[in-house]
Design brief:
- By secondary structure, this protein is mostly beta strands.
- The chain has one domain (28-405): Neuraminidase, CATH 2.120.10.
- The protein is 0% helix and 56% strand.
- The chain contains no helices and 36 strands.
- Strands 1-36-33-32 form a four-stranded antiparallel beta sheet, with no helix packed on it. It has a four-stranded antiparallel beta sheet with strand order 2-3-6-7, with no helix packed on it. It has a four-stranded antiparallel beta sheet with strand order 8-9-10-11, with no helix packed on it.
- The model is unreliable at 1-22 (pLDDT under 50).
């Protein structure tokens, strides 16, 4: 296995039902979505409000007093106390990732038909612009981030065929876009790929002038054809899909460094977190485990060193976030439940774990995002469970929920 520069793995979180003083948010709040939802990603702002994006295959979809009356993509925006600000419908466009800007607006990216799609909504949910990536091929955007220093939006995804004046080298190539914040204009700034299938699953800003992209490479071809030139010469995979982490200069989009991670089986880097110029990544290493109903390892890396690897039956990382105390939290699916594990970003020391689950329900994690005093997470439950002292969901039905957790305390 090869080292990856800065990665961390975590999971999901349990909450308490304690009450706080009247002028402060409660240490635990939960918001269920009523109706069929296929959530894709969660993002937060500095105050603790969140945005959840996804797809609603059937209408209506309800959250608080807001209703989406038509099926299709949606963006849900809340305030820090969990009150619903808006529930915006995107119609046939399917958002897969979101970023919240300092002015309160929401940028969502995903796919509309066979094209990468992006849209910006103001603080009240009104559409400021929407755009599509032009080209004869198919494209999809899976991740988005905002650089507060430069007010630039970056997105990442993959494409097949021709986009702009670039043709994919294999089954699919990864792409990086710069999106003009005021107009939505998409500018293709970097692509990379080989004979196999390459994807970009996460993107983040890591200090001044550096953008980091992560995903998978070398899928769908024999190992001997898996090599990809990330800008420093060809890099071959270990077999099946492998994970990569690529740091780019934010001006010229040339390669600063690249690292890969792979084991037998399909592997990939699924989430990034940055702090003080350091890059942390969560990797799912799907090495088969004899006798297990499903495989799974989650890797935590930092500065090209393996800090921690968890090997258990049926686990998968879903997201990373730092809390105000500097702990790195990783959200994971763990069997039929969800958990959040905290680690020291310095040496990978375990700093705690919280879990969610229900006897007659299965949970699936969606994402985790930092908020003042803790973090918010999004997940689904297949039956009734209890969060913050309240029942969430119904027997035999899948319910999406957002949970604000503010009682983490000191490390």
């Amino acid at each position: 296995m090869r080292a990856l520069p800065a990665l961390a793995v975590l999971a999901l979180c349990a909450c308490s039902g304690a009450r706080s003083s009247p002028d402060r948010p409660r240490p635990c709040d939960a918001l269920p979505l009523l109706g069929r939802a296929e959530p894709a990603a969660l993002a937060s702002d500095a105050a603790g409000g969140v945005a959840l994006v996804g797809n609603a295959p059937f209408a209506p979809l309800r959250a608080g007093n807001a209703v989406a009356s038509q099926p299709g993509g949606f963006a849900l925006r809340t305030d820090p106390e969990g009150g619903v600000v808006f529930l915006h419908g995107f119609g046939a466009a399917r958002p897969l990732a979101a970023a919240l800007l300092p002015d309160g607006s929401t940028v969502a990216v995903g796919a509309a038909g066979r094209r990468c799609f992006a849209a910006r909504l103001d603080a009240q949910g009104r559409e400021l612009w929407s755009s599509r990536l032009l080209g004869e091929g198919e494209s999809i955007c899976r991740a988005v981030t905002f650089d507060e220093r430069t007010s630039e939006i970056f997105a990442a995804g993959d494409f097949a065929g021709v986009v702009g004046n670039v043709r994919s080298a294999g089954k699919s190539d990864a792409l990086v876009l710069k999106i003009v914040a005021n107009t939505g204009e998409m500018r293709l700034v970097r692509t990379f790929g080989g004979a196999g299938a390459e994807t970009a699953e996460a993107i983040a800003v890591a200090g001044p002038g550096t953008v980091v992209v992560a995903g998978t490479f070398g899928a769908s071809v024999p190992q001997s054809f898996s090599a990809v030139d990330f800008g420093r010469g060809p890099v071959a995979g270990a077999g099946d899909a492998d994970g990569y982490l690529l740091a780019l200069d934010a001006e010229r989009f040339t390669t600063r460094w690249v690292s890969t991670a792979g084991e037998p089986g399909d592997d990939g880097i699924v989430s990034l977190a940055t702090r003080e110029g350091q890059v942390y990544a969560a990797a799912n290493l799907m090495k088969e485990q004899p006798g297990a109903p499903c495989g799974g390892s989650v890797a935590l890396l930092r500065n090209a060193e393996w800090v921690r690897v968890a090997e258990e039956d049926c686990i998968a990382a879903r997201g990373l976030a730092f809390d105000e105390a500097g702990r790195l939290w990783s959200l994971e699916d763990a069997g039929r439940g969800v958990r959040a594990r905290a680690f020291s970003p310095v040496d990978g020391e375990s700093l705690g774990v919280r879990t969610w689950g229900a006897e007659r329900a299965a949970m699936r994690a969606i994402g985790i995002a930092a908020i003042p005093g803790g973090f918010a997470l999004a997940a689904t439950t297949s039956g009734e469970t209890v969060l913050c002292g309240k029942p969430i969901g119904s027997p035999g039905e899948e319910t999406t929920f957002i949970n604000w957790v503010r009682d983490l305390g000191s490390p």
